[in-house]
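User: Here's a chain of 165 residues. Predict its fold as tokens.
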Amino acid sequence: MTGRAATTGLRSGQVAAAAGVNQQTLRYYERRGLLAEPRRTPGGHRLYPADAITRLRVIKAAQRLGFTLQEVAELLEAGTHRHQPPDAGLRARVRTKLTEVEARIADLTVIAGTLRQALTAGCADLIECSHQPACPLPFTELAVPATDDAPARPPPEPVGVIRRA
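Assistant: Prediction complete.
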């Protein structure tokens, strides 16, 4: 490449600033395969196409929605296969992520309720509270020592944990 064709594109700093990420994130996404390796100037500077900004924004938006980088990579890959059934890509993965998020919300709702109960019960000290019958915290049974004639009780299920098959 010579002349202007060798220098067309956006440099790392420009892309990072426009997408709201840092330059190390750009390089990390390249290593992970989320971004294509950019062209280089004769001096070795990376030159990204303008659509790299959009791709980075999509990656960050997907992360904010709870997708891991591995899941984002799979979503981006699925988007390149146009001959799949319509429900095999984004829609199915979003449906799965929504189920996971709703389960986490349910777990967090239970946890928040337990913490509210701890405040209402006046728990000021974990050890002291664990000996009180009104203690709502999930470790209450763990604090009760086993006697010689009664076997130790197994630990209770953590509050808010939902067993999935």
